[in-house]
Specification:
Elements: H1 9-22, H2 27-41, H3 47-57, H4 64-107, H5 114-139, H6 143-157, H7 162-178, H8 206-219, H9 224-238, H10 244-256, H11 264-296, H12 299-305, H13 307-336, H14 347-361, H15 367-384
């Protein structure tokens, strides 16, 4: 149920600039923040429509959270809104990454921000869980959809690719929900593998760099770790433009900066061709997302009007919630099971996650303040030793 008038361009810009600044923790955390702000706090969009957008972004290449920001901007502001929300969401990460790239190139090392991230991660788990709880209640609205979600979780546990699991959930759900004997079959080609070659030390050019990141942005499905495979195969082993150590440091940058992980391209572009390389790499990797959303967004309401497509979207939404369950499970294990002091697990991180969850779910505390508090706690613990 909508509780307020649609936002103007200034409101969209300020909101997504804020999310871009505080958006630590990857796409699931970004989407959780968007759900809290756009659906819960501001009432600009219904949960049903938000879920449709989440499901749709999982089916196309590119960074899911960036495409969610672009979708929301396009819905409320047309082409101008599409550009403004996308740019505002991406810019903080790009500027921070570019600054860190300059430090890295100038001084040969990265600043120690691990304590900040250590304090933020437990809070991010709670933020994702809050969104999962709210969206899950809406997406898993029938027993059939619950079984579909559980089935997708099972496929993910067995190691099936997340995109294939999502599509299977949608197709099987369409059968279960509508009992269609036949239906249109859409086959989407997922980005092909990049050949691994012996390093050839081809001199880097802006055109070559731009074309590489344009290709990556056009075919990249899945998590940011899929990006690593492209970078390793093409830029390290293929062209020899990047050393393995530079690649590892670029991955580290992507892990502890807010906003979309594809801002890693900014860091890599700077390492290869300086400021111009950073600009070209950034524009190239994000450009396809704007085009995909521009083409897809008008189709989503039409899909809802079709019985079979509506069932497919319902099943995709249930499957997308299952993907969020997998994300929060893996993130929780990685955060909570780290040895801390004399314990085999991180008791402080567990407590911080639980307290944050209670403050979010029970007392409706704004997640922005909790993320900032987590960062301060991380810094304080570092100082106390």
């Amino acid at each position: 149920m909508l509780t307020s008038s649609p936002p103007n361009l200034s409101q969209l810009a300020l909101l997504f600039l804020k999310i871009g600044i505080i958006g630590f923790g990857g796409p699931a955390a970004h989407i959780a923040l968007m759900e809290e702000e756009v659906v819960k706090r501001r009432g600009w969009m219904t949960k049903e429509r938000f879920l449709d957008l989440v499901g749709a972004t999982n089916l196309i290449p590119g960074p899911n959270s960036t495409e969610m920001a672009i979708h929301i901007g396009y819905i409320f502001g047309g082409l101008a809104g599409l550009i403004i929300t996308g740019v505002c969401f991406i810019t903080p990460a790009v500027l921070i990454t570019g600054f860190l790239a300059w430090i890295y190139t100038t001084y040969g090392t990265l600043p120690d921000v691990a304590p900040i991230f250590a304090g933020i991660k437990p809070v991010v788990i709670a933020v994702i869980f809050q969104a999962l709880w709210r969206l899950g209640k809406k997406a898993l609205k029938t027993r059939q959809l619950l079984f579909i979600g559980l089935g997708v979780i099972g496929l993910l546990i067995l190691g099936l690719n997340e995109i294939i699991a999502l599509l299977l959930g949608g197709i099987i759900g369409m059968f279960i929900l509508k009992k269609f004997a036949t239906f249109p079959l859409i086959v989407a080609g997922i980005g092909g593998a990049t050949a691994v070659a012996t390093p050839s030390k081809i001199p880097p050019t802006l055109t070559g760099l731009g074309l590489f990141f344009l290709k990556v942005g056009s075919v990249l499905f899945g998590s940011g770790y899929v990006l690593v495979a492209f970078l390793e195969a093409d830029l390290v082993q293929g062209k020899g433009w990047l050393t393995r150590q530079q690649l590892l440091d670029a991955i580290a940058i992507g892990q502890f900066t807010p906003g979309p992980v594809l801002s890693t391209a900014t860091f890599i572009g700077y390492q290869i061709l300086g400021v111009s390389g950073a600009i070209v790499a950034t524009l190239a990797i994000f450009f396809p997302s704007f085009i995909f959303v521009l083409l897809l967004n008008p189709l989503i309401p039409k899909l809802r009007q079709s019985a079979w497509a509506g069932a497919f979207l319902d099943a995709i939404n249930a499957s997308a919630v299952a993907l969020m369950v997998a994300v929060i499970f893996n993130l929780s294990l990685a955060t909570w099971l780290q040895p801390y002091r004399n314990l085999p697990f991180n008791l402080l991180a567990i407590i911080l996650s639980l307290v944050s969850g209670i403050l979010l779910l029970r007392f409706q505390v704004n997640s922005t303040w909790l993320i900032l508090a987590g960062a301060l706690i991380g810094l304080l613990l570092k100082q106390l030793g």
